[in-house]
Write the structure tokens for this entry.
Amino acid sequence: MKRLALFLTIVFISYIIYVDVTKGTLPGAATETAATEEVNTRPSEAGELAEIPFKKIKIQPGDTLLSLVEKNKNGSSIDIQTIIKDFQLLNNGLKPEEMKSGSTYKVPSYR
């Protein structure tokens, strides 16, 4: 009986490793997101409209707003509150916590 339990445990662990290697449990760098860059406007402090460049990105499991912005920015430091405010302006007030994987959202693209 112990041998059967040991055999089943080894088979189960082998299956888990196989699934983890072939399909993965975490989003990897291999999954590409289709993105198109566009520009939207928002009011700035001076009253005129400022442009918000953005990309339409399909959300993958494990993506967050900050991870998506990090992938697309070029070394510039942007305040987190500005990123959240711009995301909400681009997506009709949607909070970043309410993003769902598989959906497409406008994500600010800072240069």
Remarks:
- Confidence is low (pLDDT under 50) at residues 29-33.
